[in-house]
Amino acid sequence: MPSMTSYDRGDVVLATLPFSDLTGLKKRPAVVVSAPHPSVDLVLLPLTSQLENLQPGEFVLAEWKGAGLLFPSVVKRGLFTLDKTCINRRFGRLAVADQGKLDSALRLWLGI
Fold first, then answer.
1. Closest CA to 11 of 27, 30, 26
2. What is the pLDDT of residues 37-80, one digit of tens each?
3. What is the CA radius of gyration of the chain?
4. Residue 94 DSSP class
């Protein structure tokens, strides 16, 4: 049965995400980057607590505690589209300043 929960852009969630090489799955924090839509799919970016070797556009969340996370976390490049049923729970929301950094990163990564 499809999830009836709606998620908003900037929500920080726990999701079952595939590894980028599709060799497995891992529950990890992610941020919703899609706007609310009737589709059951969400577009997400993964978060990680690995703070080293950041690539262009990746950034440490300034307000990671306010987003409901337990550790300092980095927004990673790597868009995923997942069914809402792959979301385990919502942690919180990005702060306004972090949402602005996310918007800039998306423009950089997508060339828009």
1. 30
2. 878 899 999 999 999 999 999 999 999 999 999 999 999 999 99
3. 13
4. -
Contact 15, 86 (CB under 8 A): yes
Alpha carbons 40 and 108: distance in angstroms, whole number:
27
Q: Are 14 and 31 in contact (CB under 8 A)?
A: no
Cα–Cα distance, 1 to 34 (Å, whole number) = 22
pTM of the entire structure? 0.89
75: amino acid identity, one letter? V
Residues in the chain: 112
Which domains can be identified in the chain, with CATH numbers?
Answer: 11-110 (2.30.30.110)
DSSP 50-75: --SSPPTT-EE-TTTTTTT-SS--EE
Q: What span, in angstroms and rounded, lies between the C-alpha atoms of 39 and 19?
A: 23
